[in-house]
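Before relying on records like the one below, remember that each one covers exactly one chain. Contacts with other chains, cofactors or solvent are not represented anywhere in the record.
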Amino acid sequence: MGLKQINRLHAISTKPTRMILGLMSGTSLDGLDMALCEVSGSGLDTQCKLLKFTTIAYDNDFKDKVRQVFAKDTVDFEYLTLLNPWLGNYHARLINQALSQWQVMHEEIDLIASHGQTVFHCPHHQHSYQDFADGTLQLGDGDQVATHTQIITISDFRQKHIAKGGEGAPLAQYGDYLLYQSAQVNRVLLNLGGIANFTVLPRSGKIDDIRCSDIGPGNTLMDAYCRRYLSQPYDEGGKLARQGRVCDSLLEALKAIPFFRYNTPKTTGPEVFSLTMLEQKQAQYSRSLSHYDVLATLNELTAWCVLEHLQCLKLNGPTQLILSGGGAHNTLLVEKFKSSLPDSYEVSKLSQDGVCVDSKEAALFAVLANECVAGSGLFSFGKISLPG
């Protein structure tokens, strides 16, 4: 890195506000979430205002390419190597498309925060290699993004987390703490993405008081089932699950998955909560189930794992359960939370400074990029790629 480039980064770090484009591509492979944020300050003085948000849906060619390696035990190594730069270039094209649609000049953007596309997540409790600890793999070369957008790009956020002794996930706890800590109430930020995770912020808590963990399947099983058997991307609002009945025997078999017995913090992914696993559980029973019954059971599993983990928190006083992610639109799930939680809980959907249910994860990566460049180093994650 030359002196000119160092000076450019220094100038960005000392600006009163930074324009940062946060990117998120989830395991559902729906599309690329792009959150254009105005971020000021750093650490506990961080403020993040959402200016623009869009999701550009992935075409079938993209999905087909990624699914050849997604959560698979065996892949073509040559193909995997080639997919990494191709995916970064693809994301760069979508970024350029969004900026053009927004009529925002590339020169106005200080940083891109690129999460990349997770294709395999492998914490130590999911593998049998005694010599290895935790690992995770996100594709989408940050140098490709930086070169083809001509914007400084921060990527590879999860690798530093692993280097520091974490599992590479969840990373939401850092942005959640900086943006949503409260002196008046406890807050639980529940993200219902492919995998459900929460960040627990006790009122007036410090960074060491935060609890953050994956807790089980969010939408991943329901979405995969809808795609394979019903030719639909997901169960909109839980309408399909409402038409079925929960199969108690299948539900109990799913509850017996070892992941649920692990203590938090813990992480998981579609490698564990897959249709292959579900089919193995279903094969244990002779009674055939309708597709609606299966979806009702999967919906109940997600609700159960959330409620079980919330019960273990033993938070005292008023508590806000703040929902984000695609599952926050599943009204059947939300109804179950509201009807099952004690009166001390207030259930709502995230809405603050323009950041909402769908844009939260992308915005949180913008906050992490801000910390990488302008922070004290406490939450320093990410690799810096400069435009070529």
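The longest helix spans residues 77-102.
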